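Notes from hallway chat w/ T.B., transcribed later so I don't forget. T.B. wanted the structure written out for a chain they're using in a teaching module, and asked if we could keep both sequence and structure tokens in one place. Agreed to drop them here.
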Amino acid sequence: MNRIMRHCLCATVVFVFLLLGSPYGRSQGQALSGPVESSLQGLTFRNIGPATMGGRVDDLAVMESHPSIFYAATATGGLWKTVNNGTTWEAEFEHEDVVSIGAVAIPRDDASLVWVGTGEDNNRQSSSWGGGIFKSTDGGETWKNMGLAETAHIGRIVIDPIDHDVVYVAATGHLWGPNPERGVYKTIDGGLSWTRVLSVDNLTGATDLVMDPVNNKVLYAAMYQRPGDRDLAALQVGLLQRVGGNDDGAVAFAKAGAAIEKDVFVGE
């Protein structure tokens, strides 16, 4: 018997053995018996992924007054919430039409008010885009899309600690082409309307945003120019500081410190 025939015979025997021990090899309702049953008794199913792609954690939002409650936003795995310091987790963004999240934010003292910016802010060739910014007022049980759909990728959300209806959003924009929906957006009415308060051009978006912890009128925005050519991805980066503003949503930004061009600091 040549080698090919022996391999075919062995494969046939193994297939028949597995078929007889599987649900397809016996009539419906017939109990599994024999050595196969004893071999499989200790086996149980468990979730094994997607561990690599869904495992990229983009952001965390921790309730400062009760730090055992926090949210974890993942690049392609939705939003997760724990109320016991990470011992157990619950999925809180399962029924929306997008699963990629770039940012999550809650006020310091209220874990029921949750903002989620969709579209991971990871500058990579396989980045997943989003569908705008979402808001929940019941701790993630239900969600409402509050707009900014064309921003595609949102890197940071900042909630004013004094007035929770005032929210800032750092929008990266499309990774592979120009689009005008980039920069820093602000709402003063809980997301009913948005004003773009910082814009550079249709290739430059905002990747990060920080509020001064002692002065809610001072913000810092990191701007990033992302052309479609990967080799020029870090062409220009700058840091801008909010230096003024008023209650109607107008904000002025100015260059803060040194600029960064072609990955090299210039200036002081």
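Follow-up for T.B.: The helical segments are 3-20, 35-40. Might be a good example for the class.
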